[in-house]
Amino acid sequence: MLDLDLLPEEYAVCRLPAGSTLPASLSNGPDDKGVISVTWSSDELSVICPADRAPEGATVEAGWRCLRVVGPLDLALTGVLASLAGPLADARVNIFAFSTYDTDYLLVPQVRLTEAMDTLTAAGHRVTA
Questions:
Q1: What does DSSP assign to residue 5?
Q2: Is pLDDT at 32 greater than 70 in this prediction?
Q3: Cis peptide before 72, with omega less than 30 degrees from 0?
Q4: Is the pLDDT of residue 29 over 70?
Q5: Is there a contact between 98 and 105 (Cβ–Cβ < 8 Å)?
Q6: What are the CA-CA distances from residue 21 to residues 14, 36, 59 (Å)?
Q7: Measured in Å, how far apart are the chain's first and last C-alpha atoms?
Q8: What is the pLDDT of residues 66-116, one digit of tens each?
Q9: Domain boundaries, the chain
Q10: Interatomic CA distance for residues 113 and 102, integer angstroms
């Protein structure tokens, strides 16, 4: 069983062209409760952030809510994401997952949030809104 916190903001998944620099709207980092994830690759710059901080000029998919696994988690743990993704897949709730050193995060569509939280609770997890 895992404990999860529902973060209060709406989130966006954003894409900028390869070689882009970190947008100014993100350079100050997250606020005290939010999370921002930035991933550079040879193909793109991907950003996950509160929707109101989505970079200008990015391709933006908004309307996500973020669930944070209460951590920190030991890096040797296995099956954490599988224990969350499996039940959500069975319920046909799409996810966007990402991780930090300390924990894992799941984005679920805002329109499926109640169903996602109910599914995770039925799978034995505790979700705090």
A1: E
A2: no
A3: yes
A4: no
A5: yes
A6: 14, 15, 15
A7: 17
A8: 999 988 767 666 668 889 999 999 999 999 999 988 889 999 999 999 999
A9: 3-128
A10: 24
Q: Which CATH superfamily is domain 3-128 in?
A: VC0802-like (3.30.2130.10)
- Pairing status of strand 3-17 against strand 126-128: parallel
67 has which bridge partners? 6, 106
DSSP 57: T
- Tokens 């954490």, located at residue: 80
CA distance 91 to 71: 25
**Residue 105: strand pairing partners:** 68, 98
Reported pTM? 0.89
Nearest CA among 63, 100, 98 for reference residue 84: 98
Q: Could you tell me where the beta strands, DSSP code E, fall in 18-95?
A: 37-40, 44-50, 59-69
Residue 82: partners with Cβ closer than 8 Å, 6 or more residues away:
none
- Rounded CA-CA distance 1/18 in Å is 39
Question: Which amino acid would we find at residue 80?
Answer: V
Structure tokens at 117: 């939280």
- Hey, what are 10's tokens? 């709406």
For 12-23, what is the mean pLDDT? 93
